[in-house]
């Protein structure tokens, strides 16, 4: 993915899009050398990298700091999340946040929801900054939603989701993340939109899939929501490497002559 046009082309050619989150330089280099299509500096970094309880604690300064580290490690298409409330204080303030985020080297921004900030989305797009939408489970609204749960389960809320998706397309978004929605709802949205949908917990039919890097690498062996697959027993592998180092230090195996200067 070099530009937003490659997202549209992927959908036209029925070629699935892979996206992973990334928050730092060293994992950006690993992703850069992989086949992954594009990278998201998600506000989930507040939880994954900083240990906060929710994404509400991410700030534009945090997002920009992590995004610039990521952009130094990869030339892939990088999208950066606008953090909590940064696009809810009017157009002028939102554009200031967008400016800071784009100076990190990202090629697009992502923001959650649509109602009440349609004008902001349109203004960002008209300012030349690609916007990725995000509907369904929107973690910045966690206290309004009342917990991490599947959205669009009844007919009424499914209809609202479809309307939101169509509005985002009309406002000029180049792609939309669908988070934790029933497969048939994601399927209908995907079929009705020209722009690609990228799912997380949204079933098989979305045009792409996104996962948090640490989740897919199994860095937390306890975190096993239904939508997730661990592609590596990351925690086990890292723990055993650390314990091996510890043992070798204590048993005077490391360093040996090989790792010592003469
Ligand atoms: O912040 C994030 O990691 C995200 C993805 C889950 C889509 O927004
Ligand atoms: Na996010």
TrEMBL record:
Q: Which class of enzymes does this protein belong to? A: transferase
This protein is called what?
3-methyl-2-oxobutanoate hydroxymethyltransferase
Name the pathway it acts in: Cofactor biosynthesis; (R)-pantothenate biosynthesis; (R)-pantoate from 3-methyl-2-oxobutanoate: step 1/2
Q: What are the GO BP annotations of this UniProt entry?
A: methylation; pantothenate biosynthetic process
Q: Which Gene3D superfamilies match?
A: Phosphoenolpyruvate-binding domains
Keyword Transferase recorded: yes
Q: Which reaction does it catalyse?
A: (6R)-5,10-methylene-5,6,7,8-tetrahydrofolate + 3-methyl-2-oxobutanoate + H2O = 2-dehydropantoate + (6S)-5,6,7,8-tetrahydrofolate
Q: Which cofactor does it need?
A: Mg(2+)
Q: Which organism was this protein described from?
A: Uabimicrobium amorphum
How is its cofactor bound, per UniProt? Binds 1 Mg(2+) ion per subunit.
Which GO cellular component does the record give, naming just one? cytoplasm
Which residues does the entry assign to the active site, renumbered to this chain? 179
What is the documented function of this protein?
Answer: Catalyzes the reversible reaction in which hydroxymethyl group from 5,10-methylenetetrahydrofolate is transferred onto alpha-ketoisovalerate to form ketopantoate.
Determine if Magnesium is one of this entry's keywords.
Answer: yes
Q: Which residues bind 3-methyl-2-oxobutanoate?
A: 43-44, 81, 110
Q: Which gene encodes it?
A: panB
Q: Which Pfam families match?
A: Pantoate_transf
Q: What is its EC number?
A: 2.1.2.11
Q: Where in the cell is it found?
A: Cytoplasm
Arranged from A to Z, the UniProt key words for this protein are: Cytoplasm, Magnesium, Metal-binding, Methyltransferase, Pantothenate biosynthesis, Transferase
InterPro entries for the chain: Pantoate_hydroxy_MeTrfase, Pyrv/PenolPyrv_kinase-like_dom, Pyrv_kinase-like_dom_sf
Q: How does it assemble?
A: Homodecamer; pentamer of dimers.
Q: Residues that bind Mg(2+), according to the entry?
A: 43, 81, 112
**PANTHER family recorded:** 3-METHYL-2-OXOBUTANOATE HYDROXYMETHYLTRANSFERASE
Q: Which family does it belong to?
A: Belongs to the PanB family.
């Amino acid at each position: 993915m070099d530009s937003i046009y490659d997202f549209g082309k992927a959908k036209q050619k029925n070629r699935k899009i892979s996206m992973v989150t990334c928050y730092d330089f060293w994992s950006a280099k690993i992703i850069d050398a992989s086949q992954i299509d594009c990278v998201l500096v998600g506000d989930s970094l507040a939880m994954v990298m900083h240990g906060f309880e929710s994404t509400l604690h991410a700030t534009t300064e945090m997002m920009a700091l992590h995004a610039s580290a990521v952009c130094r490690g990869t030339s892939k298409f990088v999208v950066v999340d606008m953090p909590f409330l940064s696009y809810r204080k009017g157009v002028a303030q939102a554009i200031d946040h967008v400016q800071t985020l784009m100076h990190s080297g990202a090629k697009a921004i992502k923001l959650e929801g649509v109602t009440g900030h349609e004008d902001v989305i349109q203004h960002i797009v008209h300012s030349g900054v690609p916007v990725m939408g995000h509907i369904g489970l929107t973690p910045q609204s966690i206290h309004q939603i009342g917990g991490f749960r599947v959205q669009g389960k009844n007919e009424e809320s499914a209809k609202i989701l479809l309307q939101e998706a169509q509005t985002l397309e009309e406002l000029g978004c180049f792609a939309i993340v669908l988070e934790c929605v029933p497969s048939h709802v994601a399927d209908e949205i995907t079929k009705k939109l020209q722009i690609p949908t990228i799912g997380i917990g949204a079933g098989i039919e979305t045009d792409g899939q996104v996962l948090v890097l640490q989740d897919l690498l199994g860095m937390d062996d306890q975190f096993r929501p239904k939508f997730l697959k661990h592609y590596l027993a990351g925690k086990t592998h890292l723990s055993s490497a650390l314990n091996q180092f510890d043992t070798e230090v204590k048993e005077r195996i490391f360093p040996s002559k090989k790792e010592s200067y003469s």
